Recover the amino acids of this structure.
């Protein structure tokens, strides 16, 4: 399988590490020890949608440019729909 | 009909015409005390133990395909109880004990073969880790032997002992581990459950979980609505999809695991061997084929087919461990969908919805668990309380920090 890294071009699957579902880190403001913040972090770390269909994932180009990528892929067919670079300025909803 | 030596002999003289179907082709009734979703090994074992141990016989097992079409018919058939953590060892050991009596219990030849499971180690650090695991097992009354290089060589002379990069220093052996015929296990449980009155309904998919006021009242299926007082979910790789019908999110991602089988050879490997320097395991079936596998494909998948990249990795591991495999011809490969949990350990628990129970997150180790998972899930559904050996398999252990992480890999489901 070839993945089109926005920095490196078409590269082999074996160069990448897949970090699973793209979950945004909860807002880290206020009382981090409160029940709400704990529940939000437990959700983000452990709970997943895990859909059969289009799935947004974090990939890391470990044996390449070492960039984090946002990959949109169909879990039923393994078809890659798009690959985007993740940049510091991206809105948190899009991560 | 009961299987016996006498029946075999009788049929040998009567043209094999006396054999009857192993279970009825049941159509669903309109209501049940318990509906189990998923006719894999776990679902059918649950139904069997509900009927046999807990006296609940008004039970249906609802399977969307045919019995044995899921992971129970796709796995590499290894059974063992060589775990490290206290939350796991007693559970898998109960499983091993149930395997040891399974054929008499089910009156079915499941070809349980305690041929031994040998895990190789290749470094001092790995030896120490294996010694610790073996000690933990023995403290729980499970058999374990730490072998040095010479002892491994006597057992498995065909391994590459001269490999410069991955020298074999020894192995951890569980002699009571081995293999079982996966199809026979699922057929045996289906037959035994059917005999006690359980309806095994095939080609019927659950497409909705109907609730009333936070309580389950039945399941919508492709054959209509079925009323149920209690519902158990046991659908392996499809856990998240099914649970989403009740609005639940689970600590699970689904991945595909491949397996490979070769042409038949004369007897060459008489136990299960696993490579410690990579991820590879192999055994020989009674037909003579070598059955082997390795890592998951790295990305979430529902495709039931794997990539070439993983196959080439498996092949490299195979040759590093056992060079003679270079001449082997592969007959088939296939994939099954694993519900990988966030700590690599399973879940057998109630859900926030009253009357709805969950069994899943078995990763790639759920075949060996079939008898114990069925027993403990039936216990939970019948009594509303955890069986003591499965008490740690809680759904809320992630939020409370009580994870059971054998590998110490954290919430990275594809690494467990
Ligand atoms: C390649 C491979 C190798 C493996 N090797 C081993 C091994 O050596 N040792 C080991 O211990 N484990 C192994 N495993 C893991 C083991 O096979 C599984 O953990 C175990 O079989 C899962 O439980 P099950 O038998 O109930 O699953 P399944 O047989 O998958 O049963 C689940 C059933 O649910 C049905 N279903 C799903 N959704 C619905 C719905 N909506 N309505 C109705 N029915 C539904 C499915 O059709 C399926 O039949 C392996 C798995 C694979 C794929
Ligand atoms: Zn790159």
């Amino acid at each position: 399988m070839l993945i089109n890294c926005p920095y490196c071009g078409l590269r082999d699957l074996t160069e990448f590490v897949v970090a699973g579902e793209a979950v945004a880190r909860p807002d880290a403001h206020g009382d981090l020890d409160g029940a709400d913040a704990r529940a939000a972090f437990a959700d983000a770390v452990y709970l997943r949608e895990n859909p059969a269909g289009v799935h947004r994932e974090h990939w890391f180009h470990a044996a390449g440019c070492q960039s984090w990528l946002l990959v949109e892929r169909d879990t039923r067919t393994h078809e890659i729909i798009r690959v985007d670079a993740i940049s510091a300025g991206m809105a948190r909803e899009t991560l | 009909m009961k299987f016996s030596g006498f029946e075999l002999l009788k049929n040998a003289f009567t043209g094999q015409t006396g054999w009857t179907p192993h279970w009825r082709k049941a159509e669903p009734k309109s209501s049940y005390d318990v509906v189990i979703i998923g006719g894999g090994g776990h679902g059918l074992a649950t139904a069997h133990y509900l009927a046999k141990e807990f006296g609940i016989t008004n039970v249906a097992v609802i399977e969307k395909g045919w019995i044995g079409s899921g992971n129970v018919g796709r796995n590499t058939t290894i059974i063992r109880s060589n775990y490290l953590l206290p939350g796991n060892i007693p559970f898998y050991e109960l499983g091993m004990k149930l395997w040891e009596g399974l054929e008499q219990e089910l009156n079915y030849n499941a070809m349980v073969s305690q041929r031994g499971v040998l895990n190789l180690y290749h470094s001092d650090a790995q030896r120490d880790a294996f010694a610790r695991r073996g000690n933990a097992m023995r403290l729980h009354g499970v058999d374990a032997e730490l072998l040095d290089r010479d002892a491994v060589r006597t057992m498995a002379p065909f391994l590459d002992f001269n490999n410069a990069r991955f020298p074999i220093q020894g192995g951890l052996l569980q002699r009571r581990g081995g293999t079982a015929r996966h199809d026979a296990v699922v057929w045996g449980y289906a037959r035994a459950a059917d005999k006690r009155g359980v309806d095994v309904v095939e080609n019927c998919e659950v497409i909705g979980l109907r609730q009333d006021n936070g309580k389950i009242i039945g399941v919508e299926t492709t054959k209509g609505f079925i009323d149920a007082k209690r519902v158990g979910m046991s659908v392996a790789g499809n856990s998240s999809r099914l649970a989403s019908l009740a609005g639940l999110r689970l600590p699970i991602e689904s991945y595909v695991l491949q397996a490979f089988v070769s042409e038949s050879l004369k007897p060459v490997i008489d136990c299960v061997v696993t490579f410690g320097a990579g991820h590879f395991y192999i055994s020989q079936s009674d037909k003579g084929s070598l059955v082997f596998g390795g890592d998951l494909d790295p990305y979430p998948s529902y495709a039931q087919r794997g990539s070439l990249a993983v196959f080439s990795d498996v092949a490299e591991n195979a040759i590093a461990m056992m060079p003679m495999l270079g001449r082997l011809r592969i007959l088939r490969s296939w994939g099954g969908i694993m519900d990988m949990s966030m700590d690599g350990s399973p879940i057998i628990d109630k859900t926030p919805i009253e009357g709805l129970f969950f069994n899943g997150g078995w990763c790639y180790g759920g075949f060996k668990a079939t008898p114990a998972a069925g027993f403990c899930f039936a216990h939970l559904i019948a009594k509303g309380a955890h069986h003591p050996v499965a008490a740690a398999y809680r759904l809320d252990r992630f939020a409370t920090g009580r994870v059971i992480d054998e590998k110490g890999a954290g919430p990275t489901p594809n690494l467990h």
Observations:
- Residues A 5, 7-8, 61, 64-65, 67 surround zinc ion (ligand 2) (CB under 6 Å).
- The first strand of chain B starts at residue 31 and ends at 37.
- Chain B has a mean pLDDT of 97.
